[in-house]
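Two entries, shown back to back:
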Amino acid sequence: MGSPSSFCGVTLVDSPVVRLAFEFAKENLDEVSFRHVYRSWIFGAILASKIPAFAKINFEVHAISTLLHDLAWDHLSSFSTPDKRFEVDGANAARKFLEREAPQFDNRQLQLVWDSIALHATPSIAQHKEPEVALCTMGITVDFLGSRFPGGLITDDEYNAVVKELPSVDFKESVKRKMCGLCANKPETTYDNFVRDFGERFVVGYSARVINSVDILLGADWRRGPVE
């Protein structure tokens, strides 16, 4: 089954590469994760229909980015590496998918997809990037917040209609398991992002070792204490 052209009354972009991304996500994600990325795509489309700044974005880029944004959030994924944040692993996997399946994508489109995925869990930066990048993060956030998403842009009826078709059963517990898996198995990739919070709360023996930027930039022997 290819990707739909509409869902719960919302028009979704439909093209060969989006259909390929839809199937790629379905093949490479567990059911809970697939429903999450699918819902996030729909929520982004709902937001875009209400926000004029998103009216003319590249909706193929948005669809592909959202559908493929969590390819590596499970440390057991074939796309996961030992030394990179899960968002970067996912962005790299999506770029390789497009280089293979969509040679018509130019460098800017590839970069937009990469940025959308790499920054999807860092909204404080993503919101200041291109609208495709911002919308990817916003749709994903709606799947966590529902109608509590700021601005009243998602109604209870809209949220419930999507969740009725794509149930969020076991979603929060699944996220917890995956984040804790990252903390336990590749902790060095979790110290400067939100994943650390799961490690500190739920993973026995996890140490929130913060990378000291001063030591990196100036050296560990740099003068300590406040500047006078």
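entry 2 starts here
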Amino acid sequence: MVDPLSLLQVSGGGLKLILYQYKTCPFCSKVRAFLDYHGLPYEIVEVNPVMRKEIKWSDYRKVPILMVDGEVQLNDSTVIISSLRTHLMNKERSMAEILQCYPAMKSVNDRGKEVTEYNNKYWVMLTEAESLELYPDKGIQKEEIKWRTWTDEWLVHLISPNVYRTTGEAMASFDYIVREGKFSPMEGFFAKYVGAAAMYIIAKRLKSRHNLQDDVREDLYKAVNDWVAAIGKKRKFMGGDQPNLADLAVFGVLRVMEGLEAFDDMMKNSKVKPWYRRMESASLNHEGRT
């Protein structure tokens, strides 16, 4: 389907962007948050999470994948966002040229699984003058990188244990996933009932792996309260009057819980709601277009 943003004439446009995604994936939601905020037109291809035939042409078998002008493939949500932010600061640089700043490195993790990591992925590649324009105050870039890293390495790992916390929440979560995703009727049936049971068990393992509290909600509340405290009372966003890349990353990850019990509990029992609503408005109004 084509996103309504494709009908907009926006500054910073000109790139043909196709996002291959699962709608309920927090990493895909991060990318959409960036694209929506900056008013960049893009087309969405929803990928079937069972067969993944929509990305069978790609050696990289994860989502999100962003295709730029039908030629340049961007993998990894953080690389996608950093690359696009670099381009918006200097449109003379091609995406192929920018992508060279984020080389892929393969390694084997502690579980014996081959993983791909990307060097420099939290950095927006700028000249000195561009850096001063984007980060005029000392420490802003370092703070942004710190919290973008925190989002990927901590916050995102709180989502599954919270949305699959109980069998009832697991069923509700998979009902949402099936409704919003791309499944055949048979795949949807098995995803809803077999997948929910499996993810309930996996969520318990994730809880142990990440040393979460018995009530995983407490870790979620603490995480978002730490985030709000880092912003402080004098700023609307971590980026000041406008969201920066850390704001967009946190918002994108939290947004995938909307409509679920975990999200409602978070909004009720933490201090994140005012910031979240400001982010929601900034995204819906594409306030980053200018």
